[in-house]
């Protein structure tokens, strides 16, 4: 198996530096890190990739049964670290990738030197006293929203978006391409993301962990950040003065600083 | 200037036939027009400086906004044609199409986000109709497909039987078919074939072919007689030319001899216990083209550990090397040799893996039926 091709792996930064793996969440691809990569690449070896089904990953590797649960993505992360033989890695998981990182670190603890959980949520649905912020009806509404934007994905565009090996520049010219996913795949990823419950996995984390949250985040509100911080043994919490769910875009300097300070000592 | 062209800019903004709003980079609304306020039922001071744009959306649309729209906006400066739902003060939902663009300062830092909002009730209702029609067509195709393939194969004492069907497209009913069924005299009938063409017309021929083969076998199970009957039916079809390639066989469970008749179909493979794989040359002419088509037959005895593999040409026609070459019969023989000795189940799993490995190179339906002792 060629993980470089499957996950469209890109490696940049200091060849001998500490390895920082940046893992994107639901919605976009590795381009979401583009504003923090320059700062991190100055000090670390930065590894970026696209989850299967996103960006320029190998769409032929996508299987509904494999990618209907976060374990499929976590297995890919472990395979990637094995293939590149990366050790003592600082894994930065954004959004759902935070939980993918938690699962991968439990599978292959020796490869992980630290975890950065960026705007994480272990469970998006409300459950008893736990407030994830969403109801089942809300998630169904999201799935409907993905359906409504279905027509933005046309069959004629799909082969171009999914990567034309002979003319890679074609993909880059398309607007929206880095947040555009085959709706069938997006639906499966959305279900895996928003209907998973990984609260019990947090207590099993042994790697040094930094939880990064934003002051205003409609997807992962502060009480969820506090819950993750309280549940991961010995974790640290940083609250960025930022709005939205993607601080690597809305507050790239502060986000890069938080990652770099953690990666320097973890 | 004509007074008709001299529209007042403030009034144009406020009363435009679409919603306008401007927000800070964090989404806080700083300006909004009367049209949008009218749609939502809010007073201006309930919104300006008080609400962020995502707060006007349904929760589902808000998640979509935070995970797709906001990142795109930051990365490419504008994003258009988004289907979102806004919620009015009384709780009613309004489907809208949203386009957003970022206004930046001299250093390229975002200052404002300008958003236009179009009423999309009619368009979304129409799109929902399209989606429903598509889902209905997919359901129909799936149902039809199920009637063309046996849901499960019967078990034959002393034999391992396995089959696999690869659908090239979920929207289309495929033209490949196979079956295995008991005959009245204790023997077993089996067939596998490929109807020329695609879509509904091909499915109609597949259905006709399948049921003709089953009923012809009841009348006279001799493989050559079955194909002759099928040929008569297909060539008399008044709806225009209908033809297929097919292998029909009869298996005797006492001595494990399979008598095969061929109608222009790719040769089956015999994967022998001793490590040799070979094509069984059955031959014959295409079924349904000529009124007096000639078919030929061959017999194979399955020894212990032998596997007979019938397949359609989706495998051999699969494109390899980024489309430059076809997989071909030589490669298939080499592949089959590598599997020997095997069982029907293992061989079918191996073929399934081979087909998946073709990725986009496999653009035709493919059926596989295997028997082993």
From TrEMBL, chain A:
What SUPFAM superfamilies does the entry give?
Answer: alpha/beta-Hydrolases
Which Gene3D superfamilies does this UniProt record tie to the protein?
alpha/beta hydrolase
The UniProt entry, under InterPro entries, shows: AB_hydrolase_1, AB_hydrolase_fold
Please state every residue range assigned to the domain named AB hydrolase-1: 20-258
Instruction: Give the protein's recorded name.
Output: Alpha/beta hydrolase
Q: Which GO terms describe its molecular function?
A: hydrolase activity
Question: Into which family does the record put it?
Answer: Belongs to the AB hydrolase superfamily.
The yes or no answer to whether the keyword Hydrolase is present is yes
What keywords are assigned to this protein?
A: Hydrolase
């Amino acid at each position: 198996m060629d993980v470089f091709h499957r996950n469209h792996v890109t490696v940049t930064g200091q060849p001998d530096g500490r390895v920082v793996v940046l893992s994107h969440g639901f919605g976009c691809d590795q381009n979401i890190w583009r504003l923090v990569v320059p700062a991190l690449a100055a000090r670390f070896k930065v590894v970026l990739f696209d989850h299967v089904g996103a960006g320029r990953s190998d769409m032929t590797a996508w299987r509904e049964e494999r990618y209907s649960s976060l374990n499929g993505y976590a297995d890919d992360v472990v395979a990637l670290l094995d293939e590149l033989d990366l050790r003592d890695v600082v894994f930065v998981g954004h959004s759902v990738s935070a939980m993918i990182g938690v699962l991968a670190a439990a599978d292959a603890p020796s490869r992980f030197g630290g975890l950065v959980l960026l705007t994480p949520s272990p469970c998006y649905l409300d459950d008893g006293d736990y407030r994830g912020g969403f109801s089942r009806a809300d998630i169904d509404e999201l799935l409907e929203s993905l359906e409504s934007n279905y027509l933005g994905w046309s069959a004629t565009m799909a082969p171009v978006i999914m990567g034309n090996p002979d003319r890679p520049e074609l993909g880059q010219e398309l607007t929206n391409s880095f947040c555009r996913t085959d709706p069938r795949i997006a639906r499966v990823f959305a279900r895996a993301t928003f209907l998973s419950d990984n609260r019990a996995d947090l207590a099993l984390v042994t790697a040094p962990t930094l939880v990064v949250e934003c002051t205003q985040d409609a997807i992962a509100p502060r009480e969820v950040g506090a819950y993750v911080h309280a549940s991961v043994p010995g974790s640290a919490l940083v609250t960025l003065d930022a709005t939205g769910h993607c601080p690597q875009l809305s507050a790239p300097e502060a986000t890069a600083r938080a990652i770099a300070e953690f990666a320097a000592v973890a | 200037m004509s007074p008709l062209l001299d529209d007042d800019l403030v009034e144009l903004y406020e009363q435009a036939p679409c919603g306008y709003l401007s927000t800070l980079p964090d989404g806080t609304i700083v300006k909004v027009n009367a049209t949008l306020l009218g749609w939502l039922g809010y007073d201006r001071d309930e919104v300006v400086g008080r609400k962020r744009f995502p707060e006007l959306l349904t929760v589902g649309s808000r998640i979509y906004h935070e995970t797709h729209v906001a990142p795109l906006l930051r990365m490419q400066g504008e994003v258009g044609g988004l289907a979102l739902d806004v919620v009015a003060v009384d709780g009613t939902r309004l489907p809208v199409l949203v386009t957003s663009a970022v206004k930046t300062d001299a250093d390229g830092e975002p200052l404002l986000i300008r958003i236009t909002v179009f009423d999309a009730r009619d368009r979304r209702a129409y799109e929902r109709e399209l989606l429903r029609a598509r889902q209905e067509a997919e359901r129909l195709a799936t149902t039809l497909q199920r009637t063309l393939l046996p849901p499960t194969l019967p078990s034959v004492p002393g034999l391992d039987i396995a089959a696999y069907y690869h659908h090239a497209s979920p929207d289309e009913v495929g033209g490949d078919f196979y079956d295995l069924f008991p005959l009245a005299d204790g023997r077993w009938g089996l067939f596998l074939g490929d109807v020329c063409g695609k879509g509904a017309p091909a499915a109609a021929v597949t259905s006709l072919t399948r049921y003709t083969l089953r009923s012809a076998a009841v009348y006279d199970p001799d493989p050559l007689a079955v194909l002759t009957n099928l040929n008569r039916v297909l060539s008399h079809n008044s709806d225009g030319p209908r033809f297929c390639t097919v292998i029909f066989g009869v298996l005797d469970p006492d001595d494990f001899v399979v008598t095969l008749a061929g109608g222009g179909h790719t040769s089956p493979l015999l994967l022998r216990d001793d490590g040799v794989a070979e094509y069984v040359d059955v031959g014959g002419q295409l079924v349904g083209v000529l009124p007096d088509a000639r078919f030929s037959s061959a017999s194979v005895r399955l020894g212990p550990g032998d596997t007979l593999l019938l397949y359609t040409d989706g495998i051999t026609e699969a494109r390899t090397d980024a489309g430059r070459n076809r997989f071909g019969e030589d490669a298939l023989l080499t592949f089959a040799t590598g599997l020997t000795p095997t069982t029907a189940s293992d061989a079918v799993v191996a073929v399934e893996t081979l087909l998946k490995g073709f990725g986009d190179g496999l653009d035709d339906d493919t059926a596989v039926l295997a028997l082993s002792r």
